[in-house]
Design brief:
Layout (H helix, E strand, L loop, with lengths): L1 H54 L15
């Protein structure tokens, strides 16, 4: 009976460690994706503004808020 309890406790601890590692990896990945999307959006906005400004200087000051809300 003690062996069963010891095995069960060891398995429970292992599962807890896996769940904790999984949550940490998920949180890091989520942060990395959100950060990269922010950089991509900023880069896209800069390129768009330069392209619009080159094509029509009258609109050079506009940003992407109307084209890409959020």
């Amino acid at each position: 009976m003690d062996t069963d309890t010891n095995i069960r406790n060891a398995l429970d601890k292992s599962v807890e460690k896996l769940e904790t590692a999984g949550r940490a990896a998920h949180d890091k990945t989520t942060k990395d994706v959100v950060d990269e999307l922010g950089r991509m959006r900023s880069n896209f906005r800069d390129i768009h503004n330069r392209a619009v400004g080159a094509a029509n200087p009258e609109f050079a000051g506009r940003d992407l808020r109307r084209a890409a809300p959020g």
